[in-house]
Amino acid sequence: MTSTISAEVRVPGDKSLTHRALMFAAAARGESRLSGLLAGADCRSTAAVLRALGVSIPPLPADGGELRINSVGIEAWRAPTEILDCGNSGTTVRLMMGLLAGRPFCAALTGDASLRSRPMRRVTEPLSRMGARVSELGDPDRLPVELCGGVLQPLAHRSPKASAQIKSAVLLAGISGRVPVEVWEPGLSRDHTERILRSLGVSITGEAPAEGGWRVSLEPPTGPLPPLEMDVPGDPSSAAFLISVALLARDGELLVPNVGINPTRTGFLTAVGRMGGRVEVLNQRESGGEPVADLLARPARLRGIEIGGDEVPSMIDELPVLAALAARSEGETIVRGAEELRAKESDRITAVVDNLRAIGVEAEELPDGFIVRGSDRPLKGRVRTYHDHRIAMAFGVLGALPGVELEIESPEIVDVSFPGFWETVRGLGGRRS
Predict the structure, then answer these.
(1) Which of 115, 141, 232, 337 is most buried (most C-beta within 10 Å)?
(2) Which is nearest to 14 in space by CA: 343, 265, 316, 338?
(3) Does residue 317 carry a catalytic annotation?
(4) Is 41 helix (H, G, I), strand (E, B) or coil?
């Protein structure tokens, strides 16, 4: 167990909401006022792409202060003069494809080596069916691609995966091309896009049809989107790492204020509760259409659980840190139905299992998940992050424990979503490995 914790720590703004806030502000007509934005590398990629389309986006404030964006609307976006570099951000490239699908020009999009290894047809195929023309400029189903937008047709899309990126790309294409769209997915994925659209007065509905799954229907507005006012809450995925440090502490407590608790993002808290974790949800309220609360975590004796099926989408980004907790829990933790982890910034199933084994934890790779057998044996070794921020932070949680000696490769990759993560962990009594 790590040392005593008694602290209150804020986490950076929600990454998913920051991406969307920037995009909606750029697509709207008028002055949008945003605060609490994450100034991490992924969100800076979104801002840079929007600037390349002619939108005036000031630098993102490092302290989460107010950012004002004046835009004349998506109709005024112009063809970029160079390829749009989305960095490491899958959210940037996939959601921007949706917005670009209805614009009457061509744009080429690419990213870093990690992003260029991730599948893109799950988004480009439905956009092509709407009328966008997509050319793959490199390997099949991979970036770089050129997308030529224009007049779009309505679409009813059945997504094979519960994916907020797929769903949002189609919804944003409906906004950009001003055509009605419908997306059916096997389960409800993150609904941040729908909530923001609703707050802007767009007609959008969600329902659970008789055949199962979740269906979202959008009727586009006839006029421009109004400007957005939003105070972005703390990122629940970032909070999960600090909560995990507190759960593994010897005693004390940790308060993480102003964290988003959107029901499509709280699977980690539910799973931790089943493991015996002690996390209280306090002062629940709403901000900008999103539920927010303060989270109070205390040390706990954790036990292994099984996770699968409908649980996975609401905690997909937290599964690496849950694996870290499982390494210090009693018994066996089994995760299934999480094959989507293989299409993230890294193959997170392989990355988690290989690294756990490398530091002395019994772990087994499954086609769609993993098995972790907890113990209190000493842990030591080198962690390969595969340039994936969540892998680095998940093993940073274990590295904060006394007696654990980990060397974490490329620790700076955490700046993608949590600038200052290592300093924050050190402030809790942990250390950077």
Answers:
(1) 232
(2) 265
(3) yes
(4) helix
